[in-house]
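Weekly structure sync, notes
Attendees: PL (lead), two postdocs, one rotation student
Agenda item 3: pending single-chain targets
PL asked that the sequence for the first pending target be pasted directly into the notes so everyone works from the same version. It is reproduced below exactly as submitted, 175 residues in total.
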Amino acid sequence: MNEASLGISTAIGAGVGNLYQDGGVNPATFYGPKELVLDGKGNLFVADTLNMLVREIEGNVAALGLVTPVRQFDKSAAMSQTIENDGNTALDLTAMSPGTNATLDAATTTCTIGNPPLAVAGDCAAGVAFAPAMPGNPVVGIISIGNPGDTADSPLAIEMVGDASAVNSTTTTLA
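Predicted structure, written out during the meeting:
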């Protein structure tokens, strides 16, 4: 995890006294952390028992699951993932790079690379599609996002997981 962009916040509870503080890694404090739970989006939840709180440490990966299988060499319908700038300066996105089994959808992507930068408290959409190059269950597609700024809630990667069916290998001859 990127310590510079990690956000720690209260997920459940009102807390007791002034024994806890939300925020980035350096100012955030715990009092009696006991149990940890990791969700499918990379967020870590901590039972901060002496504060009587559940704290959330936000991850940097957005996970999109697909229900319907996609054929090898085909692509799913476009899905939208919000990129947020929760930092304290404008965010200059340096790249949006699809890896194997993933593609960007230009029609639904509102994020721009370079100018203009994403304003503080601003957001944009990354339109993504699952495009498996191989059959399997599960198949993972990744789109990496270059955002070196302080963005606690923005993913650094969008991960798509789904089933990929083999291409139909039958041949039909028309007479």
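Discussion points:
- DSSP finds no helices and 13 strands in the chain.
- The longest strand covers residues 136-146.
Action: rotation student to compare against the earlier draft before next sync.
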